[in-house]
Design goal:
The complex is a heterodimer of chains A (344) and B (492).
Chain A: H1 3-31, H2 35-66, H3 71-76, H4 79-104, H5 108-138, E1 142-143, H6 146-150, E2 155-156, H7 158-162, H8 165-186, H9 192-213, H10 215-222, H11 225-244, H12 249-267, E3 271-272, H13 283-286, E4 292-293, H14 301-343
Antiparallel strand pairs in A: 1-2, 3-4
Helix pairs in contact in A: 1-2, 1-5, 1-8, 1-12, 1-14, 2-14, 4-5, 5-8, 8-9, 8-11, 8-12, 9-10, 9-11, 10-12, 11-12
Chain B: H1 3-42, H2 45-78, H3 81-90, H4 93-114, H5 121-150, H6 157-163, H7 180-209, H8 215-253, H9 255-262, E1 273-275, E2 278-280, H10 283-288, H11 313-343, H12 360-386, E3 391-393, E4 397-399, E5 405-407, E6 411-412, H13 413-416, H14 423-451, H15 454-461, H16 471-491
Antiparallel strand pairs in B: 1-2, 3-6, 4-5
The chains are: A mainly alpha (344), B mainly alpha (492).
């Protein structure tokens, strides 16, 4: 697998993991009946704004740098969902920002109201994001002939892109994983059964959807002991985080999810349009596997080499610096306020 | 409206909203750190209150500004994807480095906001300056991309224009487009000018409209007025040089764009400067040439092939006139105000300049010309962008067989826009959401500040100052109690 293609999964997996914390928290706030967890979730949401904004920028710039020709796909096939996603993200940021503002003014009823409004939008954002992801890897919603594909002349079919079985099953898998993630991240002992159910369903749905629609990913995963170790670790971590209160609980949950997302990237073997271009269609380009190698879409080598150095440094800064600041300052401060509030 | 026009309007609108926030993102850290420094140096809680209150403004504006920035980033890869493809292939390094600058800004902004009572004074102020460094570096890098669009380097432009192939790609050379030496100083000085000007305008407005304010409020707004007036005037010196330098660089690097901005149709020596019909012969030649020469020849449209003439040159020209006129008047106002705040000249008492923080004329002028800089710089940005038409990416200027000059275009605007019909409804929604975000931000800031009283902030600033038992702090505490008594009495 091309090292630049693999590198792209660093920001992609990072953004997906960060967004999971937010989506999990925002969906749970209005329905969570245990006040102490609810307050922690609100604190997390307040701490995430910096890291979400920077992660998204990092992801887009990495895409620009590594895959210059992908612009013809983003501009001609994904234009509507990407622009719609920006509208939804704008609304989502506005509501969370308003909730933060209301919270700092002591208007806690308004704070929860804004977060409740943000909940369906966060879910739709997640659905849009997942759709973009699944459509690129599976090819659903991309209309082309072999000839037009090689010239990057692809047209969209939005209905197929959003409402294909793979997208829906995969999205449900993510939703169930977020349920597990939230239970483990906050160590919600009272809901450990929900965590187990969510995790089990997530694993089943991921395996089933990739077996049917992403053959390269499925074959790479089931034949890899690392994947099965990952599956076992997810259950172990759920037990430790809910019953044993392990130190650095959030970090372990976050790290394991990030590693899982990176593994997914590695299992794609850098191949896109896996279900739309079956193995053997263009062996000269494909080799023996299904799909098209994403390395065909790389930027010219001079620009790529120079850009990768800067992106590597940016990766260290965001993964190290921004996260540390978000956790040590924003989150810890917010938790302190929660503790003071509870005490009062 | 054609899709090409709509795509351009959408990009202009989104960018116009985003730059509004960047003006303050670049300016506020300097203003805030300057206030913090004065607070420590003079042991003055009012300056500290300024620093603390405005740091909240900075954080709110940063959050909304970065959301608008994300919208632009996505518009680049969807609406203007053909342009972005060329940028990605040759000039993506400034964007990559800009990510580093953006992260620096985020990290140090968070540290600054939460480090008031946790860091040493020096460390806290240095962190504030690092926020400024991050935001200014972001601006510089984006201006470098814009400069590259005007004078592309780092690849064979002519070859690309003919065949669409990228040859001789050198991403490091793309970091040094010739016109950057004009655009970068002008952009940074301009952003500071709008930022300091509008901050001054805000303090002037408060002093102007609230004549019955309490002691604390008056001290607070007066100090804010003075500080922003000095910073505005200081930047006006930088701006004057940057403006002069920009004209000189355009003269040799982009003479066609200079002709567009100045509305110069005919090539001539002793070229006049024309501002809204006021025509000064020889002044344009004098200003753009080095060494200054009133008889220098300035190329007009008559020296270029007609198909390269800017179809909307009138828009660039009028926008440039608005920009230059308001900017020049703004600089003069800045210098006069700073001088009068410093010297309180009796001989200018007929203009109220002997007491500029209390008299109506200077306060009104500061408010008006402070805020008009927003229009000046939005107009300047319109002039700069429309002045590049009909191309998104220019090419080198070559002489044709007829003796006229032609531009070897890198990428024409007509070839770069996205003609997908779905952009229209989604684009309109994006514009509406951005408008709501701006209105919501103003509402939120207003609400935040209407609930947080200045007297409370001044009082809360005392522990941050050295020996809060110091003379001034004690005095301030007395003032505060008197002020509070007044409020209580007023209330009763």
């Amino acid at each position: 697998m091309n090292e630049y293609v693999l590198f792209f999964f660093v920001p992609l997996a990072w953004f997906a993991t960060i967004f999971m914390i937010e989506a999990g928290s925002i969906v749970m706030v209005p329905i969570c009946k245990i006040e102490s967890y609810k307050q922690k979730m609100i604190a997390v949401l307040g701490a995430l704004w910096a890291i979400i904004a920077t992660s998204l920028v990092y992801l887009v710039v990495t895409l620009d740098t590594i895959f210059a020709p992908v612009m013809f796909v983003t501009g001609e096939v994904l234009v509507a969902p990407l622009l719609a996603l920006i509208i939804l993200l704008g609304l989502h940021h506005f509501l969370i920002g308003s909730a933060e503002g209301a919270g700092s003014l002591g208007l806690h009823v308004d704070e929860e109201k804004y977060l409740t409004w943000a909940m369906p939008i966060a879910l739709i954002v997640a659905f849009f994001g997942t759709t973009l992801f699944t459509s690129v890897f599976s090819g659903y919603g991309f209309q082309f002939t072999l000839e037009s594909l090689l010239k990057l002349q692809i047209t969209p079919n939005y209905v197929q892109m959003f409402f294909n079985p793979f997208n829906i099953v995969f999205f449900l898998g993510i939703v169930f994983y977020v349920v597990y993630f939230t239970v483990a991240y906050y160590g919600i002992k009272e809901r450990w059964q929900l965590g187990v159910a969510g995790l089990t369903l997530a694993h089943i749905l991921f395996l089933a959807s990739t077996a049917l629609w992403l053959p390269v990913v499925f074959q790479s995963a089931v034949g890899n002991p690392g994947y099965w170790i990952f599956v076992i670790l997810t259950y172990v971590l759920l037990y430790l985080s809910t019953f044993k209160n392990i130190p650095w609980r959030q970090m372990w949950v976050f790290l394991l999810t990030y590693v899982g997302a990176l593994m997914f990237g590695a299992f794609t073997q850098g191949r896109i349009l896996q279900d739309a271009v079956p193995a053997g269609t263009v062996p000269a380009i494909q080799g023996s596997l299904a799909g098209v190698p994403a390395s065909l879409l790389l930027t010219n080598p001079s620009t790529l080499a120079a850009g990768a150095v800067v992106l590597g440094m940016a990766g260290i800064l965001i993964i190290g610096g921004v996260t540390a600041v978000s956790y040590k300052i924003l989150y810890r401060q917010a938790l302190k306020k929660v503790a003071e509030k509870v005490k009062a | 409206m054609s899709l090409e026009i709509f795509d351009r309007v959408l990009a202009a609108y989104t960018m116009g909203v985003h730059v509004l926030f960047t003006y303050w993102a670049i300016t506020l850290p300097i203003f805030i750190v300057a206030a913090e420094y004065l607070a420590y140096r003079k042991n003055d809680p009012y300056y500290m209150a300024i620093a603390k209150r405005w740091s909240v403004v900075m954080a709110v504006l940063f959050a909304v500004g970065s959301a608008a920035g994300a919208a632009i980033a996505v518009e680049f890869i969807t609406v203007w994807y053909k342009w972005m493809y060329v940028v990605n292939q040759v000039d993506i390094l400034p964007f990559d480095i800009e990510v580093l600058a953006f992260f620096t800004e985020v990290i140090f902004l968070a540290l600054y906001m939460y480090g008031w009572d946790r860091l040493s004074r020096g460390a806290h102020m240095i962190i504030g300056l690092l926020v400024s460094l991050g935001s200014t570096a972001s601006a510089i890098l984006i201006l470098m991309v814009n400069s590259w669009m005007n004078t592309p380097t780092g690849f064979n432009v002519a070859q690309y224009a003919q065949s669409g192939q990228f040859t001789d790609v050198d991403p490091l050379a793309a970091l040094a487009p010739p016109v950057a030496i004009a655009e970068v100083p002008m952009g940074v000085a301009g952003a500071w000018f709008v930022g300091f000007g509008s901050i001054l305008g805000y303090f002037a407005y408060r002093l102007l409209t609230n004549k019955n304010m309490g002691h604390e409020e008056k001290e607070y707004y007066t100090r804010g007025f003075k500080l922003s007036a000095y910073l505005w005037a200081g930047d006006a010196i930088f701006l004057a040089w940057a403006g002069d330098n920009a004209g000189k660089v355009l003269y040799w690097a982009q003479p066609l764009k200079l002709a567009t901005l100045e509305g110069l149709m005919t090539t001539q020596s002793n070229a006049p400067l024309d501002l809204f019909g006021i025509n000064v012969p020889g002044l344009l030649s004098l200003l753009v040439s080095w060494p200054p020469n009133p008889n220098a020849v300035v190329l007009g449209y008559s020296s270029f092939v007609s198909q390269d003439w800017n179809p909307i040159w009138w828009l660039s020209h009028v926008s440039y006139d608005i920009h230059a006129t308001l900017g020049i008047i703004g600089a003069l106002v800045a210098w006069i105000l700073a001088y009068s705040v410093w010297r309180r000249p009796k001989w200018l008492s007929f203009l109220g300049l002997d007491n500029p923080t209390e008299k109506t004329i200077p306060l009104g002028v500061a408010f008006l010309f402070g805020w008009l800089q927003l229009i000046a710089w939005e107009a300047g940005w319109v002039a700069a962008e429309t002045g590049r038409q009909p191309w998104v990416i220019w090419g080198p200027m070559v002489q044709t067989a007829s003796g006229l000059y032609a531009i070897q275009a890198g990428l024409a605007t007509a070839d770069a826009f996205n003609d997908s019909p779905e952009i229209l409804p989604i684009g309109i929604t994006i514009m509406a959401i951005l408008a709501i975000a701006v209105a919501g931000t103003i509402y939120m800031l207003k609400k935040l500040f209407s609930t947080a009283r200045i007297a409370n902030d001044v009082s809360a600033s005392l522990p941050l100052l050295s020996g809060s038992a110091g003379v001034m702090a004690t005095q301030t505490s007395k003032d505060l109690s008197i002020g509070n008594d007044k409020i209580v009495n007023k209330g009763t």
